[in-house]
Design goal:
The protein has 347 residues and is of the alpha+beta class. It has eight helices and 19 strands. Helices cover 27% and strands 29% of the residues. Strands 1-2-17-10-19-8 form a six-stranded mixed β-sheet. Strands 4-5-13-14 form a four-stranded mixed β-sheet, with no helix packed on it. A four-stranded antiparallel β-sheet has the order 9-18-11-16, with no helix packed on it.
């Protein structure tokens, strides 16, 4: 690709983002009440997010969940727990060898009561040294390992079910503290995200900006304990595991995965790409609902409630791959990757 052609393509990608935001704005619509199915379908057709303030405020979960209620309901249940040194599960991390990997968390099963006590104690103590634990399984866990709590939320989001003519593919529960951060990524789901305890802070980037998220194909790896037995000792599960006891172990026999390496909150070398993007930021409080459209990139951080925990529930509805959204996003991605390859060959 000639140098002039590359410059023209880059300019076209930048103009696409500018035009999109001029036509759609840089704010998330805020609704005072839940939409009708028809109103919701209009947002789906435009692929635009919105927030319903206090849309879930009448849920038993929002009204009743606290530390002791969760412990009592879950009793002696064991749950999957994701463990990382810095709260960065499923994220791009550069190892000591200078290699970047897409790193998955170390996963264990623990008594729910022990897990929640750890999460709360870490937040209240201001502990920034011990590893971070997060309940983040995205496998319909609220109807599985957390089924005791499912009766406290809606079995589906009625206006989404009616409009999309389908049941949710998964309903997931998220529990952690302020040290857990979800790296920039996107999902092929129409996502209804409902905050229960604490706050969630979303940074959203539209599919139109796919060309500016610095996608790279990276090898995968997993955090694993550095001890000789390759697993935690029982006495270490609650509070004794320090950051240096987890190491990045490259996975064997796996293919590289495409990753968004842009961090919209970083400065420095990524300033130029951040400038080309126009991130939209929105915060959810208890009872708030966010419609996060399919294919939108999002980074998520959180703030705990008074008890030192943060809880949320989300409903995933399979997206419709027909129409323009998926194919046009794939085209923008392919063009951006071709430009990146050309730049790399010239450097």
């Amino acid at each position: 690709m000639a140098s002039s052609s590359v410059s023209e393509v880059k300019a076209a990608l930048e103009d696409l983002v500018t035009t999109y935001h001029e036509l759609n704005g840089d704010l998330v619509d805020e609704l005072d009440e839940e939409p009708s199915a028809l109103q919701f379908m209009r947002y789906v057709a435009q692929n635009r997010p919105f927030v319903v303030r206090e849309g879930a405020s009448r849920w038993p979960a929002v009204q009743s969940w606290d530390y002791h209620y969760l412990i009592d309901k879950m009793e002696d249940s064991r749950v999957n727990v994701a463990i990382t040194p810095h709260g960065n599960a499923d994220a791009v991390v550069t190892n000591a060898d200078g290699m970047s990997y897409f790193v998955k968390p170390y996963e264990v099963e623990e008594l729910f009561a022990d897990f929640l006590a750890y999460v709360q104690r870490q937040e209240r103590d201001g502990d920034v040294v011990s590893n971070v634990k997060y309940a983040q399984t995205q496998n319909d866990n609220l109807r599985g390992e957390y089924s005791q709590l499912f009766e406290d939320v809606e079995e589906d989001v009625s206006w989404a079910r009616i409009a999309l003519e389908k049941q949710p593919d998964a309903i997931n529960l998220w529990i952690g503290n302020s040290r857990s951060v979800t790296a920039l990524h996107r999902d092929n789901y129409e996502n209804i995200y409902c905050q229960v305890i604490g706050q969630k802070h979303f940074t959203l980037i539209s599919p139109v900006e796919t060309g500016h998220i610095n996608e790279q194909s990276l090898p995968t790896a997993t955090y694993l304990p550095s001890g000789p037995q390759g697993s935690y000792k029982a006495s270490e599960l609650l509070s004794e595991v320090k950051q240096e006891q987890l190491v990045i172990k490259p996975d064997e026999g796996t293919e590289p995965v495409p990753c968004a390496t842009l961090d919209p909150d970083r400065t420095g070398q990524e300033v130029q790409e951040i400038h080309h993007c126009r991130p939209i930021r929105v915060t959810l409080g208890p009872g708030d609902m966010l419609y996060l459209p399919a294919m939108w990139y999002h980074k998520v951080s959180q703030t705990c409630g008074d008890e030192g925990i943060c809880c949320a529930v989300n409903y995933w509805y399979d997206m419709d791959f027909g129409g323009f959204l998926y194919s046009s996003s794939a085209f923008i991605r392919a063009v951006a990757l071709a430009v990146a390859r050309t730049d790399e060959q010239r450097s």
